């Protein structure tokens, strides 16, 4: 260990001046930091003292949190078979447009279409189970791709949650309870098929019990205080829609009231009367209450304009456990996308994590709050597994980054690498030598003009990052450069054209490997922005779009083969299926 070779003290200051390259033992930092840079008679400003205290505040390590779902149980084939036959037995069935089947929830038209597609001859030619050890698809014989039955069993179907009480988020329309007097209270339900007539569903069997309790409380409260429902014919009335989000660990409801108003002031005093009555009727039911102002003429329920949102009461974020391990939380606000069946999506997220090879560099497009990426990050950080090298998430919703950052901060530093990287940016390692330059910066940290040494600035070199951008812009900004795994979870319309074009490009063997756009040695118009990606995990909520995108990828010169396709009946009773399709590049 090298000691200071010379220290010069000037008569007009107490600061020590030594060359910046000279090293001090770490033990000398504390007394020197404690030395004041001003005379002993002066008192530090309160703001400076508070800022310094805040900067050096210790961060408590994350604590274990409860688990909501059991992956092994929900993946059990016997459990899955029981759920396929289990009835829903809802009293609103047949009149309610939400469910089209009361049992055999995996035997719906969209699932049958998916089975036919993945068993077709065109797809079988590009399936890895058919390709086997063949090096060229031209080696496949006609009899290899022709099947006697329409479904060859390649497309597996899973019911990842019970068929009842699975819905943890619901949006309901509002209508006046009585046509003769608008202030008799409100009904809450879904539009009947082909109409804008609201069908009340107060006892829905697929709703989480807390949602049904909230509906009954709203019915009683709106009748008590005379809340008027919006009338689309006259454009009069107040309450238009309601959204319920269940925080599963507490069973409490994050309630959003969508009001026919341009600003919150116009919703008063009716809004305050309603929320006070709701708090009186069910004080332990509400996690938080929000107002969203919507005076538009269209069918959109929400706007991303932050000026349209007002938090009335309660915490800003709903917390949900990251689906693997016992550390870390996901954070949601009503402005961020959240799955309707969180229990079922936990299982899907686990399967995505297991499909990503250990040690991967992962780019996630259409990431939302980062649920899939952070689940994979946590999964591969477990003992005995190889951690991900880095994770880059992106989405165009500007409300997502705050949720994402809180989620990352809830994870241990050993998973996110943020603690080590932050120290690397700000100083040397705790157990190593410290330069005088570093020491002087730390001594001056109390000065408001000095940089905040403990501020954490996200850079391209951080292990976990988030970018607000469309999927296409994220790729063109270099989010996928250097990644070997791409995770996409697009909306129902599927991939953006620009993203699909990149995925259908041939690998450019002349393109240098780079993880940063600035390091590329070829012009942008010649860049393949997914050049190093060899695995695409496509999470689809719209099967028709997936079929279209898959056909283009498999028929392109990019070398894609289909490894697997699994259907998840996330909304039992409806004609809907989520699909994970895994593509591997074979050159």
Plain-language structure description:
It is a single chain. This protein is of the alpha/beta class and 587 residues long. It is 28% helix and 19% strand. The strands form five sheets. An eight-stranded mixed β-sheet has the order 4-20-21-19-18-14-15-17, with helices on both faces. Strands 7-6-5-8-9-10-11 form a seven-stranded mixed β-sheet. It has a two-stranded antiparallel sheet with strand order 1-2. Strand 8 and strand 9 (252-259) form a beta hairpin. Helix 11 packs across helix 12. The longest helix is centred in the middle third of the chain and has 17 residues, at 209-225. It is globular. The two termini are 53 Å apart.
Briefly say what this structure is.
By secondary structure, the protein is α/β, with parallel strands linked by helices. The protein has 19 helices and 21 strands.
Search tags:
587 residues; alpha/beta; eight-stranded mixed sheet; seven-stranded mixed sheet; globular
Overall geometry comes to globular
**Would you tell me the structural class of the helices and strands?**
alpha/beta
Report the biggest beta sheet as strand number plus sense, adding barrel if it closes: 8 strands, mixed
Helix content: 25-40%
**What is the overall pLDDT average?**
84
Strand order of the largest sheet: 4-20-21-19-18-14-15-17
| Count of strand segments | 21
Radius of gyration: 28 Å
- Compute the separation of the termini in Å: 53 Å
Taking pLDDT < 50 over at least 5 consecutive residues as the criterion, the unreliable ranges are 1-44, 52-58, 421-457
Regarding quaternary structure, how should these chains be classified?
Answer: single chain
